[in-house]
Fold this sequence. Notes:
A: mainly beta
Amino acid sequence: TAGITQAPTSQILAAGRSMTLRCTQDMRHNAMYWYRQDLGLGLRLIHYSNTAGTTGKGEVPDGYSVSRANTDDFPLTLASAVPSQTSVYFCASSDSRSGGYTFGSGTRLTVV
Amino acid sequence: TQLLEQSPQFLSIQEGENLTVYCNSSSVFSSLQWYRQEPGEGPVLLVTVVTGGEVKKLKRLTFQFGDARKDSSLHITAAQPGDTGLYLCAGVGNYGQNFVFGPGTRLSVLP
């Protein structure tokens, strides 16, 4: 089934450790995004990429980094996790023609 | 920062009832989208509206974009338990052409 694949589905991570959340799409969408979703705060944009080779900062980029080496993959890295990064992380992509976002199923991360 | 507010925050109704949820901002949006999110899943796009005053229908769901393109509403007729979920609105924001999401309305339709 075409769409976005995120891995892992869930993870418990010790504070101070690093982790990379994986995101792969098979729709050849140019733009990709990482959001975190927290109760009462909704979806907040962390980083985005309008096309392969470029990235940009969103609303809450601190503590996170991304890369976009090719069209399909957009990994999100936490260099040194802190408890405030406990959240559900969603990767999304969009076809610039329609603008509608396709979301993955999310990664539930708990930093302890 | 362009902010979106949604109301009500929570809504619990009986099957067969009608309901309306709202999305408001002090900013003008060039387009606005509605999504539905079910537990454990990512949001799924329902509709995109781009023209002030535009009305779109999707089966029992009716979406309206305000004339000034600052607000939108979603009306559900004869709600069903399958309509249960978190309804999110999103408008084009300040970070390039990325959408800004509202906090959502959590709808529960009881059988």
